[in-house]
Amino acid sequence: MSREVKNISKTANLPPGSLIYTGEAQGQSIILTTYNLQEINSKKINNIEEFLEEKGKGIRWLDVIGLSNLDIIKELSKELNIHPLAQEDILNTTQSPKIDEYEDSLFLITKNIFRNDNGVYDSEHICMLLYPDSVITFQEYDTDSFFQIHQRLEEGKLLRNSGADDLMYALLDSIVDNYFLVIEQIGVEIDQVEIELLERPTKEILNKIYKIKRELVYLRNILWPMRNLTSALARGEYSLIDQQTIRYLGDVYNHIIQMIDIVETYRDICSGMLDTYLSSIGSKTNEVMKILTIFSAIFIPLTFLAGVYGMNFRFFPEIEWKYGYLGFWILSIIITAAMLRFLKGKGWL
Questions:
Q1: pLDDT over 90 percentage in the chain
Q2: Would the pLDDT of 10 be above 80?
Q3: Which of these, 104, 170, 155, lies nearest to 133 by C-alpha position?
Q4: Of 265, 254, 127, 242, nearest in space to 183 by CA
Q5: What Rg do the C-alpha atoms of the chain give, in angstroms?
């Protein structure tokens, strides 16, 4: 969360449309894929002219990986007449998922989720621009988010026989499918913590529960905006999306709804585990207090006897008695045995 707040501060007090990259500096590469039913050509390019030269040869997919090179973004925006607000959102990695429609394009902001080097779930800022004959994607990191889509285009002709809107759907569906993998991993973590909690509740288990709860909140904050985005797409409000594609987008929307329900269920399970942990700790505390109370009850009469015979009076009949010391210990043992029998009879031992 601190990373997001820090990145948001970079754009504070700036006018709308200011091009400030709020993410971390990354290497940049651009992959151009042009395809039709008969053939597909994928290559790395160094300038936008190569993208423009492919116009009319089929569906074009320009995948921009890394957003720190503002010159590339500005050049691409100029050639394709990308709206200034869309340019700002492309570079603002803290922007939540949303959808905007412009005169000749549809602009989407999505988030891909992955586990970083520290073992913490993080999000990748991914933007899409849909045109009648092309799709442009902007990825914050080189995480192979769309590797399977490249593979599908290379191996099969079904996607290559479709329009640019189908490519956009396939990219969006790939991101949403990855959410299922993340939720599945969190589910495995919850199962493991539940087993450990029942076997031995420790402070380490408590930390794991809080970690999972933070992960679920983080995931929920991404899923809810994605719900609104996919809902708008599934309603068929945009002219660039074919009716057939809208049906598939409705399926993506249903997947998001399903995942939100799962996340809420997991949050309830975590709350239940937290209650179980606190109950276990409370039960252990009560057990310790019970033992201490039993010891106190046994030693109260013994302390009384020791206190009486420890007083500094001159005349104590038992002090001069030959068996006084032995009698003290016999009496102490009898009292202790009586107390133990009494406590056991009450079921406290």
A1: 42
A2: no
A3: 104
A4: 265
A5: 35
Tokens at residue 136, please?
A: 């442009």
Q: What is the pLDDT of residue 191?
A: 94
Q: Could you read off the pLDDT of 183-235 as tens digits, one per residue?
A: 999 999 999 999 998 888 888 999 999 999 999 999 999 999 999 999 999 99
Whole-number Å distance between alpha carbons of 127 and 212: 28
Report DSSP letters for 269-285, one per residue: HHHHHHHHHHHHHHHHH
CATH 3.30.460.20 location in the chain: 2-279
Token pair in block for residue 210: 């809080």
Q: Is the CATH code 3.40.1160.10 the one for domain 2-279?
A: no
Assess contact for 328 and 304: CB atoms under 8 A: no
The CA distance from 324 to 152, in Å, is 98
CATH class assigned to 285-345: mainly alpha
Q: What is the structure's pLDDT at 11?
A: 52
Contact criterion met (CB below 8 Å) for 227 and 260: yes
Structure tokens at 338: 């009586």
Query: How does DSSP assign 190-221, residue by residue?
Result: HHHHHHHHHH---HHHHHHHHHHHHHHHHHHH
Please, is 307 exposed, middle or buried when counting C-beta atoms within 10 Å of its C-beta (0-12, 13-18, 19+)? exposed
Residue 17 is predicted with a pLDDT of: 53
Is pLDDT of 4 > 70?
no
N residues, the chain: 349
CA-closest candidate to residue 80, choices 132, 156, 5: 132
